[in-house]
Amino acid sequence: MRDLRWEVSCCIAIAAVGWTGAAPVQAQAVAVAPAEQAARDADRVRILEDELQQVQQRADDAVRRRSERLAAHDPTGVEAAEQARARALSDLSALQRELEAARSPRPAVPGRAVGAARPGKEAVWWDVYARAPSRASAAVSR
Fold first, then answer.
1. Using CA atoms, how far apart are residues 35 and 125, in angstroms rounded to an integer?
2. Percentage of residues in the chain having pLDDT higher than 70
3. What is the maximum span of the chain, computed from C-alpha positions, in angstroms?
4. Does 90 map to a domain?
5. Is there a domain that residue 29 lies in?
């Protein structure tokens, strides 16, 4: 029991400090060539369209299964088919939103994230709209 406590405390200490003890590396933005990004975007749209067709097929299958279960007087099967159809319809709406976002044009200013600080105005890391700090956040930062 004593050895187990020692091993657990060692694991906790290693997890707290980090296995290597090295400082965390900050992520850096990677620039991608416009042609490569266009190819990635086209792949994304193709994958989403394929998935949309598969989910549409699942929804159609659920409707067919519901009809079969109704004809067989199987209330449990009917309920399961209705739940499957509801899940498929939810997935369809999510995929359609994602496809719409994938097909929409990118921001006009290359290399600048949406919501980044305006020129001449430095934004705080959590301030995606580059607004003036509130009194509460100003008091916390002091």
1. 30
2. 54
3. 71
4. yes
5. no
For residue range 62-115, list pLDDT tens digits in order.
Answer: 999 999 999 999 999 999 999 999 999 999 999 999 999 999 876 654 555 554
Please give the full DSSP string across the chain, using - where no structure is assigned: -HHHHHHHHHHHHHHHH-SS-PPPPPP------HHHHHHHHHHHHHHHHHHHHHHHHHHHHHHHHHHHHHHTT-HHHHHHHHHHHHHHHHHHHHHHHHHHHHHSPPPSSTT--TTPPPTT-PPPTT-TT-PPPPHHHHHHH-
Contacts of 140 (CB under 8 A, 6+ apart): none
> What is the domain count for the chain?
1
pLDDT digits (tens, 9 = 90+) for 18-71: 555 555 556 667 788 889 989 999 999 999 999 999 999 999 999 999 999 999
Whether residue 22 lies inside any domain: the answer is no
Whether the model clears a pTM of 0.70, i.e. scores above it, the answer is: no
Q: 88 lies in which domain range?
A: 40-103
